[in-house]
Amino acid sequence: MTPWRCPLCAAASIRAANTVPDAAIGEQDSEPLEVTESTHELRLESTSPTSKSYRCEAGHCFDIAREGYVNLLPVQQKKSLSPGDTIESLQARRRFLDGGFYQPLRDALTEVITPCQTLIDLGCGEGYYTAALNDVACEVIALDIAKPAIRMAAKTYPALRCAVASVAAVPLADASADAITSIFAPVPLAEMLRLLRPGGQVVVVTPAPAHLFSYRQALFEQVHDHEPSKFAEAASEHFQVVLQKEVRYDISLDQAAINDLLLMTPYAWKANPVRLSAVAQLQSLHTEAAFSVLVLSKPMLDLGGA
To answer: Under DSSP, is residue 94 helix (H, G, I), strand (E, B) or coil?
Structure first.
């Protein structure tokens, strides 16, 4: 099982690395702070017959919640009191996804990922797609900055290893993963490079240009195409592009699904209130689901170099 790293020790290590040692400014008998890799690792311990926690050598302790997840998001990494998706948005997404509207995408993910040992899903949400990845990985690590999302994922899918954490500062060691997924979530390229073993895969899913086009037409006077190609161009500087494909099919939504879609997507935040109200009252809507699936590979190490 891949060990967690202490986010507080990791932050201290970064601060130490970025601090000019006293010796550099004339204090020759002072030594810079040293934080070792072993200090970073969290070890599981039982605090009572019914309670468990993770603790590092420096004494930082992180309790395992009743649902089975651990909160590894330091307050310094929070930009708000409750970062990430709201409970209402997550519940709407759960109802919508349980309706099977995005099942073809879920199936496609397991087809493009090479079976592996350890997979990390960045920005896992309530775990719908993440749970399917158990079919291709022995260990699936689910991370999200939203505590309600991780609580839902851990409770519904106990086979996942779940943690509240920032995807920009993942509490795992370098070269921990064989595969990383980002499904409608942030794509921190530097962290992906750090976490992946040589030859490891990255799978990124974003909306394709035509995704929910008629739905967006009803919400906005002017509809702008999604542009997944922009990310592919940026990623190609660091990764090899293995595959780029679209998953497209028609869907028919009833009023309940339409309203759940409004709650779970950012479109509603930007829509004109009059148009938003009109869409919410629709009895049915026919549109197209269209997803861009990009598969990347981290280059192997150049063993012949000097």
So the answer is: helix
Residues 6+ apart with CB under 8 A from 129: 105, 106, 109, 121, 181, 183, 205
The Cα 111–Cα 103 span in angstroms is 13
Residue 89 amino acid letter: S
Measured distance CA(89)–CA(92) in Å, rounded: 5
Q: Which has the closest alpha carbon to 62: 47, 51, 72?
A: 72
Residue 95: strand, helix, or coil: helix
- Type of residue numbered 274: V
DSSP class of residue 82? S
Q: Which domains does the chain have, with CATH numbers?
A: 7-64 (no CATH), 87-297 (3.40.50.150)
* CB neighbour list of residue 178: distance below 8 Å, 6 or more residues apart: 116, 117, 118, 119, 137, 196, 197, 200, 201
Cα gap 53→84, rounded to integer Å: 24
CA distance 163 to 44: 14
- Which residues pair with residue 239 across a beta bridge? none
DSSP 183-203: ESS---HHHHHHHEEEEEEEE
pLDDT in tens, 254-293: 999 999 999 998 887 888 899 999 999 999 999 999 999 9
Residues in the chain where the model's pLDDT stays below 70? 11-39, 49, 228, 301-306
Give the side-chain half-sphere CA count within 13 A for 230. 8
